[in-house]
Amino acid sequence: MSSHDHAEHHVTPLKVYFGVYFALLFLTIVTVGVSYLGLPPTLSIIVAMVVASIKAFLVSAWFMHLAHDTKFNVLFFVASLWFIAVFFIFTTSDLASRGRVMKAADTFEYRLDKASKAPAVK
Amino acid sequence: MSAHEDQPYYHAHHFHTMDQQNASLKLGMWAFLVQELLFFSGLFMAYISMRFFYPETFELVQHKNLLSIPWGATNTLVLLTSSLTMALAVRAAQMLPMVKNDEEKKIRKSLMNYLLVTCVFAGMFLVIKYVEYTHKIHDGLLPGKFYSYDAWKAQIEDNTFAGVVGEGGELIITEAPQIFFSVYFMMTGVHGLHVLIGVGVILWLYLRAKRGEFNRENFAAVENVGLYWHLVDLIWIFLFPLLYLVQ
Amino acid sequence: MSTSTTTVAGTEEHGSNYLNAKKGIMSWLITIDHKRIGVMYLAWILTFFLAGGLLAMAVRYELLDPQPTFGAEVYNKIFTLHGAIMVFLVLVPAIPASIGNFVLPLMLGAKDVAFPKLNLLSFYIYVLGSLFLIYTLVTNQLDTGWTFYTPYSARTSTAVISALTGAFILGFSSILTGLNFMVTVHMMRAPGMTWRKMPLFIWALYATSLIQLLATPVIAVTLFLLVFERMFGIGIFDPALGGDPVLFQHFFWFYSHPVVYVMVLPAFGVISETVTVHSRKHIFGYTAIAASTIAIAGVGFIVWGHHLFLSGQSELAGAIFSFITFGVAVPTAIKTCSWIATLYKGSVRWNTTMLYTLGFLWIFTIGGLTGLPLATLATDVHFHDTYFVVAHFHYVMMGGVLFALITAIHHWWPKMTGRMFSEKAGKTVFFFAFVTYNMTFAPQFVMGAQGMPRRYHEYLPQFEIWHQISSYASFGFGLSLVGVLFYLLYSLKNGEKSPQNPWGGVSMEWETATPPIEHNFEGQPICKNGPYDFPEIEVDPNAAAH
To answer: Is the ipTM of this structure higher than 0.90?
Structure first.
């Protein structure tokens, strides 16, 4: 393979590293602070995941040098996220749609039934 | 026959150039990281499913601060800092001159220091986790069948969780904190194991750096261990809010 | 036709090849030569194939009559161990780890794989994993079915944890092999070998490597969680502990469906090689086959729910998975049609390798087509957990992958050993194997359609005749496999010495010495022609590129 991989030759300036670091610290404070706001659960999860994703982007692009790496490594890394998403989405779609046709098959409803015995602890 | 005779010892025979070798090692490391991600994704899927089935439990555990947010946040900051020092270590290795002169000695010293500091922070992370784990064990908040009956009964009595105590002494509840703690221990345990392994590998790098094995042509090991370390940090970036923060 | 710029030494002049270059058992145990590693894998895999095969004979023996012979508990253990050994120890590494390891660097014009020491480590991890399965065999065995469904697998007292640990470790071997092959294909192709000049076997191994990297970690975490379910009662899979058993099935099949493509894609790759070389014809539809290989790998990841149609999965999810499963048949059909089109007007050589290739085409087509009624919700309601399913997967896995493995062993036997096996023996045994194979499994389609359930040791009398045909044929098939082994081993001492390129192949592995020297090539060969550009084919420069 003759194409040059420049990541080894590109030295990231110190200020970029520290800039990313302080951004990460800031975002951590944000996400902890937001958790004290008492948002409704769904919104709370979405905000937390968005903040985490931004942090993840910063770490992968600059600490892991993907911003200056060969395109294939970036593609491979991003592609794995696609497969993870497939796993999550398809499985959750099953969990969430049970009982649509037959009420008795809805395992989720079953759990919310307050009268049912939950696992006993001795 | 290719010129093996004037190849440095770190240039493997089946690669034509160092560029090819380094690019291959890096691609191999990314492939390894991809499979690590998929491994952790299974644990995240378990989290998603259990949260889906027991939403109130998860909300209540976080609401009642059964996990300590200050410790968790501290650990996040510790790990982020270790990521910075690791990145700086890679940067130092990248700048190591080929000849062993005074400048090389200086940069090599800073490489070693960065590696050591990374280990120290990683150690802090593990110590904090140890503290958290011992608290949980002490309070009986253990995974699955080891969740303490007394802790649970006390939590029902003080209305942490809804439920009643049946005639036979069994607990009839709709929340399942023992499942939350199963997920908690599984996820942080596997992550912690990866941190521990990382410490070992970084120490190995430290020893190699001390022996002067690295230079700006041959530092792939430092860079690739760095990638591993950043992945461990990445996982925690998602683990922390999901387990400690979201209500 | 020759594309290398330096001399390639033949066996006669050189005298030294990878087999005799270094002597002694230690030289094999610490080798980093991909060829020796491939041979060692082949030996281990075939040993476990024998073990799994004996268990299969025991299954068929139990089923000779409707009354119990071994009884339910023992029978559960027999079929479980048969399945677990065949899937994890045999089928997953069968072609990639043995033939792939041997051939891949040669075909690419490389001296070795990207990470030779990692390659040896993969082998030892494989051996370690197999020891755990042996331990399971000799202690409490396993009775959960190879699929380990919860809650039974969380509660049974058989040696589940050692089996899970063994499978976990074997997964690592698979991951590392995939990693190695993937990087090798990206980084170590000979100069001049663009992606479009790669043999299709390499495309197949590449796609397989991607699946190994992406899917295997998920089974690793699944088995890991199951171990903790047993040890700690964590409560995610067992309903009595608050978990969901169908969730286990989602986790399990997210890997176990793509893994069937890990098994079969290399088989497809082998067929692409043999169907061209032994008909002296360029492959029909190179781009289509390469693209469909990647497509199968990708689509294979989004169909796993077709194993869960009757498990309690939601109807919506079932419908989605069914629809997508039909889709995966399309690239597979493209391949099969392309292979047949390759044979058309080719100069077909009726040797053992070609016979096994044709046998594969017949068997795999049946196996693939019978997957369609299983992908269809309405019919799967009746076929699920019957012998129809058993017949389907044995046709694709056993007939498909195994016949392709046998094809590969025959095709590259001269290259690996420097000997020619007896064609007469090969052809004779082939006919016997092919007939007995079909007689073993075809009746199972009939039985399954009539309602014979799988994993049952006793059954209604109406199925007896089909079981008897199947069982006696299976004993015959087992004998035929012994026959194959026999004439192959016989050729090691007594076969005539192979010429450098007995079949006239034009891909790069045929440019090396036969058997190859230790570092494959003297110097770096350059790739000038495509892998199927047989010299007597005149290429019209105005025609569209193949």
So the answer is: yes
Residue C132's alpha-carbon distances to B165, B178, C125, C165, in angstroms, are 44, 31, 11, 7
Indicate yes or no: pTM above 0.90: yes
User: Is the bond leading into C515 cis (omega within 30 degrees of zero)?
Assistant: yes
Structural domain includes residue C541? no
Distance between B219 CA and the closest CA of chain C, angstroms: 17
Residues of A in contact with B26 (CB under 8 A): 5, 7, 69, 73
Put simply, the answer to whether B171 touches A121 (Cβ < 8 Å) is yes
Contact (CB<8Å) A12/B91: yes
Between CA C245 and CA C248, with CA C246 as vertex, the angle to 5 degrees is 70
Are B59 and A41 within 8 A, CB to CB? yes
- Looking at the 3D structure of chain C, how many domains does it have? 1
For chain A, what are the domain ranges?
A: 1-69, 70-122
Per-residue pLDDT of chain C (546 residues; tens, 9 = 90+): 444 333 344 343 457 889 988 889 999 999 999 999 999 999 999 999 999 999 999 999 999 999 999 999 999 999 999 999 999 999 999 999 999 999 999 999 999 999 999 999 999 999 999 999 999 999 999 999 999 999 999 999 999 999 999 999 999 999 999 999 999 999 999 999 999 999 999 999 999 999 999 999 999 999 999 999 999 888 899 887 888 999 999 999 999 999 999 999 999 999 999 999 999 999 999 999 999 999 999 999 999 999 999 998 888 899 999 999 999 999 999 999 999 999 998 999 999 999 999 999 999 999 999 999 999 999 999 999 999 999 999 999 999 999 999 999 999 999 999 999 999 999 999 999 999 999 999 999 999 999 999 999 999 999 999 999 999 999 999 999 999 999 999 999 999 999 999 999 999 999 999 899 999 998 899 999 899 999 877 667 776 654
List chains touching A (3+ CB pairs under 8 A): B, C
> Is C100 part of any domain?
yes
Q: Residue A84: which of B37, B91, B176 has the nearest Cβ?
A: B37
3-class state of residue C258 by DSSP: helix
What phi and psi, each to the nearest 5 degrees, are found at residue C17? -135, -175
Q: How far is A93 from chain C (nearest CA, A)?
A: 7
Q: Is B3 on the interface with C (CB under 8 A)?
A: no
Instruction: Please give the Cα distance from B232 to B239 (Å, whole number).
Output: 10
Q: Quick check: A90 and C320 in contact, CB under 8 A?
A: yes
Residues from chain B that touch A18, judged by Cβ atoms under 8 A, are 84
Contacts of B among chains (3+ CB pairs under 8 A):
A, C
**Which residues of C are less than 8 Å from B178 in CB distance?**
235, 242
CATH of the domain at C250: 1.20.210.10
φ, ψ dihedrals at C432, nearest 5°: -65, -45
The answer to whether the CB atoms of C250 and A97 lie below 8 A apart is no
Q: Which residues constitute the domain of residue C180?
A: 23-511
Chain C contacts of A83, Cβ < 8 Å? 214, 301
A64 touches chain B (CB under 8 A): yes
Rounded CA-CA distance C275/C404 in Å is: 11
Query: Which residues of chain C are within 8 Å of residue A95 when distances are taken between CB atoms?
Result: 244, 247
Residues 6+ apart with CB under 8 A from C306: C257, C321, C322, C325, C374, C375, C380
* CATH 3.40.630.30 is right for the domain spanning B19-245: no
